[in-house]
Amino acid sequence: MECKLAVSMMHDYLDDDLPAQQQKELKEHLLSCPDCRIKFKELEQTDMLMFSLMHQNAAASDELVGRIMNALPKPKKEKAFVTWIKRHPALTAASLFLVVMLMSAATFWNQNTQLVVRGSDLDQVVIKGDTVIVPSGHTITGDLTVENGKTQVYGEVNGNVTVIDGSLYKASTAHISGQAKNIDQAVSWLWYKVTNMFSEVAYR
């Protein structure tokens, strides 16, 4: 075997790509040729050095990637209620609206104690302190609403009479063509306010 051919076979041998018969021939040549034997040792050492460097670089690269990933800020976990809000936006909005309305209602319910009288024919009523009186012989055309006071009807009301957080007295001589409602609970009051608000918006 010529030395030139032996040198070309050394690379395939080190890469474990040389067939068994050629491996045998190469080994026989190396035993008989000192120059090729030295050349083979140099190639073997170079191959081992390259293999070692590649593995060191791979390990260093993995370590560097690990250090970079560990240095990155960890993603914050969303709390359960935040996730629920994101999944149910309509229900969240409705719940929030209800809470605000109830809080507002509670505030107004507790704070608003002033007598309020609403109607179209208020010149037909008599107000004494916290008492609103529809005298006998007088007629109110339209609805009458009284908040935080007593209402006494002796005359005629051609409409509804609504008393909020107060009392309603209807004499035997009285005549109310519409409904007579006495609202004295916070929930009923809130419902009345909401429906009233929507009615006012609808008529504007």
UniProtKB/TrEMBL annotation:
Source organism, top-level taxon: Bacteria
Signal sequence extent: none
Gene3D superfamilies: Anti-sigma factor, zinc-finger domain
Pfam families linked: zf-HC2 (PF13490)
Record domain Putative zinc-finger: where: 3-37
InterPro entries linked: Anti_sigma_zinc_sf, Znf_put
Family the entry assigns: Belongs to the zinc-associated anti-sigma factor (ZAS) superfamily. Anti-sigma-W factor family.
Protein name: Anti-sigma-W factor RsiW
